[in-house]
Amino acid sequence: MASRLPLSPAARTAPPPVRWETAEDGPAPVPVNDFRSLMSTFPAGVAVVTTHGPDGRPRGLTCTSLASVTAEPPILSVCLTTRGETLQALRGCGAFAVNLLHERARHTAETFAKPVPDRFAHTVWQPAPETGLPWLSEDAFATAECQVAHLAEIGDHTLVLGLVTGLVQVTGTPLLYGAHRFASWPGGDIPAPQHLAGPAPVRAGVAESPC
């Protein structure tokens, strides 16, 4: 019988990670480059995962590993580099936001994928309505605010499960990435439910951290 996933309490930190190891006597994995080639043929939407660091300043990075896990309760997953600054901040904060980028936000996707010292200086952000987490209000057509539910270290990445506690969505055309290049969703704009529309974007600097 599957065990229920323990959700982290309303405290400001994430639950400790679970370490996953491969069996030493198991089958040999395919070469890394072959695996990367396979995954490059699977286009995906582009998101920027954001959180707050211990100093109250925002942290974030570009992510294409977003997936829906379950609808009841509403839980999504992202995979982040274990040694990365964003994951370390996320673990301390216990919460994060997933900003789904629209087709005009390619520059932001590229900026947050590079080792840029202050990525947030190159975009506009403000506190998200529910949690105060960094919301890329001019680059994202949808944003999910999440509480960390579970962490699992797998290889050089950590699987992060997040309980969705808030949503903001406006009409927009998603940005896609696959085969090492960006593209726009061919179906055009995806309409947003009116009740999910957030406050009008305003230019914001460093906000008070919710963590």
From TrEMBL:
Region (Disordered): 1-27
Pfam families for this protein: Flavin_Reduct
GO molecular function: FMN binding; riboflavin reductase (NADPH) activity
InterPro entries linked: Flavin_Rdtase-like_dom, NADH-dep_flavin_reductase, Split_barrel_FMN-bd
Domain annotation Flavin reductase like: ranges: 39-184
Entry's transmembrane regions: none
Alphabetical list of SUPFAM superfamilies matching this protein: FMN-binding split barrel (SSF50475)
Any coiled-coil regions, as ranges: none
Keyword Oxidoreductase among UniProt keywords: yes
Superkingdom of origin: Bacteria
Keywords: Oxidoreductase
Keyword check for Oxidoreductase: yes
Name the record gives this protein: Flavin reductase like domain-containing protein
Source organism: Streptomyces gilvosporeus
Lineage: Bacteria, Bacillati, Actinomycetota, Actinomycetes, Kitasatosporales
